[in-house]
């Protein structure tokens, strides 16, 4: 946390840790804006637009896919029943 206190420059910390100065500056900003939670979440306070679109697409296909799965299982069971040799009583 010496970067926060101003004891060491962003460039020096980046060099010591073999990362870019931009990364250190971004992490510093994220920490100052959101504390530990902001840093842990990568500075994101909410889902990105791209993530929201992807999640909406997933939700759109969940129910139809589930219904198709159930229908397939019914067809499979029906086919198994029809293909099973009949047991004859003696």
Your description of this structure?
The chain has 90 residues and is an all-alpha fold. It folds into two domains: 2-40, no CATH class; 47-85. Helices cover 74% and strands 0% of the residues. The longest helix has 35 residues, at 49-83. The termini are far apart.
Main sheet attributes: strand count, strand direction, barrel closure: none
- Rg, alpha carbons: 29 Å
Beta-strand content: under 5%
Cα shape: rod-shaped
Uncertain spans: none
Number of domains: 2
Q: Secondary-structure element order, as H and E?
A: HHHH
Give the termini distance in whole angstroms: 87 Å
The mean pLDDT is 80
Structural class: mainly alpha
- Tally of separate helices: 4
Total strand segments: 0
How helix-rich are the residues, as a percent range? Answer: over 70%
Entry summary:
This protein is mostly helical.
Question: What keyword list fits this structure?
Answer:
0% strand, 74% helix, 90 residues, 2 domains, mainly alpha
Write the layout of secondary structure elements.
Elements lengths: L1 H4 L4 H8 L3 H20 L8 H35 L7
